[in-house]
Design goal:
Length: 93
């Protein structure tokens, strides 16, 4: 198998992983409230919001890693094609 299909498959895998993490994170934040509960009668709401925030905090490092993997693999793709262009133009050997 040549390098190009493997390169694009790895890049697509990273993009799909990152998209899945962002979709999961957005489904978690859908139920997040942007208000402060000052009364003690809303302790169950405070607990639910704290649980959502803790889940988002666990997913956030995965989202960052996914973005960096996509950026790194995109750089590999760009370097590969820039080198290929230079070889085709006989600028490098």
């Amino acid at each position: 198998m040549t390098f190009v299909p493997v390169m694009w498959t790895v890049w697509a895998g990273f993009v799909i992983f990152t998209a899945a993490v962002y979709i999961y994170r957005s489904s978690l934040t859908r139920d997040e409230e942007d208000q402060i509960f000052l009364d003690d009668s809303f302790d169950h709401e405070k607990a639910a919001q704290a649980m959502i925030v803790s889940k988002i905090a666990k997913v956030e490092p995965l989202a960052r890693v996914g973005v960096w993997l996509v950026v790194a693999m995109s750089a590999v793709v760009l370097v590969y094609y820039a080198r290929d262009i230079m070889v085709q133009l006989h600028l490098i050997g």
